[in-house]
Every structure is written in C-alpha cells, then in structure tokens.
Design brief:
about 120 residues, alpha+beta, Nucleotidyltransferase, domain 5, 4-stranded mixed beta sheet, 4 helices, globular
C-alpha cells in the first residue's frame, strides 16, 4: 500500500507533538497551511485554549496583494506583534508536519525578525 501525503504528514505531526508542548508562558506556535492561505495560532496546551491567532484571511493581510510567501511573512509579523502586546516573547514552533521550507520558513523568519524567540 502506498503512503499518501496526508498519512505521511500525520505521522510526522505525531512525532513532533510528542516533543513540542506549550504552556501559558511559553505557548506552542502552530501553523496550518492550505492551498489558499496560511493560519497560525498560539496555543496553551495545559488549558487547551488558543491565546492568539492570525491568518492570511485577516482583513489587513488579505487587502495586500502578493504571492503566498509574502502573505506568510505578513502573518508571521502579525502574530509576533499580537504576542508582544499580550506579553509573550518566547514560543515553541510547531510546523505541524510540514517541511521547514517555503511558506513555513518565511513565516518563521518573519516572526523571529518581529521579536518572537524560538
């Protein structure tokens, strides 16, 4: 039986989630990538709540024209700015089974440049 992309990503995701765990002071930065957009959220795994979220479908980001990598940079910058307003400076990066390449890498680099540490 051939291993599908979805099954492969799910297996990698489980391997990552065994190690990456977020708290209120050091939340997990979870990234989801779809064909149309990119979504990111800071999650407190102890209480099971999303603290902050940003996506490419947010009004400020959706109005700006550009390719998907440019959108990912804007989302990374937006999540870092929202986190700094709340007082969060360090996070744990959860790439969610995606390769650290392309949109995921540009989002992470933009979040680091804007002040998040991971």
């Amino acid at each position: 039986m051939a291993v599908t992309k979805e099954f492969r990503r799910k297996r990698i995701k489980q391997r990552i989630r065994k190690v990456v765990h977020g708290e209120a002071s050091n939340p997990r930065l979870s990234v989801f990538r779809s064909n149309k957009g990119i979504y990111v959220q800071l999650i407190d795994d102890v209480s099971g709540k999303t603290l902050i979220a940003a996506s490419s479908s947010d009004k400020e980001i959706a109005d700006i024209k550009g390719n998907k990598i440019d959108q990912a940079k804007l989302v990374g910058k937006a999540i870092a700015e929202k986190a700094s307003k709340v007082g969060i400076s360090t996070v744990r990066f959860d790439r969610n089974g995606y390769l650290y390449h392309g949109r995921i890498k540009s989002l992470a680099d933009a979040a680091r440049e804007a002040g998040l540490k991971f």
